[in-house]
Amino acid sequence: MSEFLLIHGSCHGAWCWHRVIPALEALGHRARAIDLPGHGRDQTPARAVTLDSYANAICGALTGPTIVVGHSMAGYPITAAAEADPTHIAALVYLCAYAPVSGMTLGDMRRAGPRQPLAPAIRVDKGQGVFSFDPAQVDSLFYHDCDRAAQVLASLCLTPQPIVPQETALTLTPRSQSLPRHYIRCTDDRAIPPEYQEAMAQSVPPAHRSILPASHSPFFACPEALADRLHEIAESGSAQ
Predict the structure, then answer these.
(1) How many Å apart are CA 224 and CA 226, to the nearest integer?
(2) pLDDT tens for each residue of 10-64
(3) Which residue range(s) make up the domain with 54?
(4) Cα torsion through 112, 219, 225, 214, rounded to 10
(5) Has residue 240 been placed in a domain?
(6) CATH number at residue 64
């Protein structure tokens, strides 16, 4: 049995993992999800949210050896948490996520991508220091292979994304890079190009790379398949 901590991506919250947690529990694991500061039910003002506050929230949720899974933008927070204190992190799993490049911000990485599928949907509110996605485009970008119940849940729960954490560079050291790290690429992703995910996955060992034939939201589209893949990681011996 392994302990999992599931970390959401931009504009999402702990709510997006509600199908994966019971699927992992059915496989004999313990699984939890948290709202990062300024997301979900967390009321931290957007102007107070930083990459460090994300990292602190993750570290504060760890009580023992834990496999930490980061979706999308959460590749940065989970890595920042490992840089801050890797004591309780058994492994890092990047789920169609940004695998940080030392010295670059997440924004830098997104802009350096081979394509910009998100750009037409991003709506920036400079006054509040946040961005959001055009509601008319979110289903086609994030949830095109998900059922209607998942799409409705997202429409009710998505929140603006603080900009500062995504424009903060991260310096990588052995504190994070010496941990077991895995990358799960989603081959039908319309938000982060699959070919870009493939390039980012080169940062982990070949045996630690895998794919799901899913959109950017495998936690909705194929929660059991995602749980099975996380189970395989836990059982592989590379997350001990």
Answers:
(1) 5
(2) 999 999 999 999 999 999 999 999 999 999 999 999 999 999 999 999 999 999 9
(3) 3-235
(4) -40
(5) no
(6) 3.40.50.1820
